[in-house]
Amino acid sequence: MGSLTGRVGVVTGGGQGIGRGIARALAREGMHVAVVDRDAQSAEETVAQLAELGTPGLAVAGDVGDADLADRTIDTALAAYGRLDALVNGAQAMRNGLPFAEHTDADFDLAISTGLWGAFRLMRAGFVPLRERGGSIVNIVSSAGTHGLAGFAGYAAAKEGIRGLTKVAANEWGPFEIRVNAISPQATSPAAEEYFDAHPERRDAKVAMRPIKRDGDAEADIGRTVVFLVGPDSRYITGVTLMVNGGLTIMP
Fold first, then answer.
1. Would residue 180 count as lying in a domain?
2. Pairing relation of β-strands 86-89 and 32-37?
3. Which of 53, 109, 191, 245: CA 20 to 30 A from 218?
4. Catalytic residue flag (residue 236)
5. In the chain, how many domains are there?
6. Is the sign of the CA dihedral 93, 72, 19, 170 positive or negative?
């Protein structure tokens, strides 16, 4: 039996990459996961993998930028399993590599609506069921915000906004035994691969900068960190951002 057996979680952006790795890691520990992704087929593929791991989940197709998705997602998870113990906000759309002055309103809105608004709405919708037993929220943020990465103005703004939500919710919801934390991950993902294929020199430079000279693994490195944060061993941790990036944060 895993440490999360019988518990229920929601993972947005769970159809691929880091989100899929997180969903798989949670399922290995016995958590039933509602996988949210705008690509219905990708969400179903993740759910099929979770079933193979021995813990059935369910797919919720939709764009986190849509105002009604948050309530629909939480209602779907509650109808299927009767409880909610964890929420992982990982979904995010963006256009990257754009100089600040070339960002359009639409580019900025895309990042904010799917990232900041999406996380806010899911957190708000999940509060009442999480309050029943206590639980954990993990928000995915990025070094693009903490380091001010050039070409990522909208994305960085969204992720730093999510870090702000993380701290406010941790402060307000701690009395209900709801812990709210963030992780800033680095791992191989389709989006990262697409970016680094277009900028191979940046991949080499980033690996060279890290004390741990490899890319992170979405399940074994990032997913296992989320397992820790939603599990009993982190019951006295809230309001923090964990940098799960092979030591990139400490480099100049």
1. yes
2. unpaired
3. 109
4. no
5. 1
6. positive
Find the CATH number of the domain harbouring 111.
3.40.50.720
How far apart CA 141 and CA 152 sit, in angstroms, is: 13
Whether the predicted pLDDT of 248 surpasses 90: no
Place of tokens 């709210």: 180
Lowest mean pLDDT among 99-103, 131-135, 149-153, 206-210: 206-210
Residues 6 or more apart whose Cβ sits within 8 Å of residue 176: 130, 131, 134
Which strands sit side by side in the sheet containing 58-61, from one edge to the other? 58-61, 32-37, 8-12, 86-89, 135-140, 178-185, 241-244
Tell me: pLDDT of 1 over 70.
no
Whole-angstrom Cα distance, residue 35 to residue 58? Answer: 6
Q: Is residue 3 part of a domain?
A: no
Check 81, 155, 195, 236 and give the catalytic one: 155
Domain region containing 127: 8-241
The answer to whether the CB of 89 falls within 8 A of the CB of 122 is: yes
For residue 152, is it within any domain?
A: yes
Q: What is the pLDDT of residues 77-136, one digit of tens each?
A: 999 999 999 999 999 999 888 999 999 999 999 999 999 999 999 999 999 999 999 999
In our burial notation (b when 16+ CB lie closer than 10 A, e otherwise), range 51-69 reads: eebebebbbbbbebbeeeb
Within-domain flag for 82: yes
The enclosing H or E element of 241 equals strand 241-244
